[in-house]
Amino acid sequence: MDAANYLRLILALGLVLALIGLFALLLRRYGPVAGLAVRRKGDKRLGVVEVMALDARRRLVLVRRDGVEHLLLLGIGEDRVIETGITPPGDFKMALDRQEKAGTTS
C-alpha cells in the first residue's frame, strides 16, 4: 500500500466516524425520547439512595422519587416491591410529630 491508499483509508474512517456522530446527535434530538423535558442537575426527581447485595443474584435497592422512598428487591428474572411510601429519615421526626399532634400514633 502506498501513501495515497493510507490517506484514503484515514479519510474514509473519519467520514464514517463523523456520520456515526451525526446519527447519534440526530437520534438524541429527534429520537424516541424527543420532547422530554431535560432537567438540570439539581432538579432530579429520581435517585438511588442505597443498594445492598443479599447474595450473588439478589439485591435490595432503596429508591427515592419525589421525596418518597421505595424498597425494591431486584433479582434475575424477578423484581418485587417490598415496601412503598417510606418516609425518608430527615422527614421521619416531622411525620412522627404530626401523627402525635393528630393523635394517630400506633
UniProtKB/TrEMBL annotation:
<comment type="similarity">
    <text>Belongs to the FliO/MopB family.</text>
</comment>
<protein>
    <recommendedName>
        <fullName>Flagellar assembly protein FliO</fullName>
    </recommendedName>
</protein>
<dbReference type="GO" id="GO:0005886">
    <property type="term" value="C:plasma membrane"/>
</dbReference>
<feature type="transmembrane region" description="Helical">
    <location>
        <begin position="6"/>
        <end position="27"/>
    </location>
</feature>
<dbReference type="InterPro" id="IPR052205">
    <property type="entry name" value="FliO/MopB"/>
</dbReference>
<keyword id="KW-1003">Cell membrane</keyword>
<dbReference type="GO" id="GO:0009425">
    <property type="term" value="C:bacterial-type flagellum basal body"/>
</dbReference>
<dbReference type="Pfam" id="PF04347">
    <property type="entry name" value="FliO"/>
</dbReference>
<keyword id="KW-0812">Transmembrane</keyword>
<keyword id="KW-0472">Membrane</keyword>
<dbReference type="GO" id="GO:0044781">
    <property type="term" value="P:bacterial-type flagellum organization"/>
</dbReference>
<dbReference type="InterPro" id="IPR022781">
    <property type="entry name" value="Flagellar_biosynth_FliO"/>
</dbReference>
<keyword id="KW-1133">Transmembrane helix</keyword>
<keyword id="KW-0975">Bacterial flagellum</keyword>
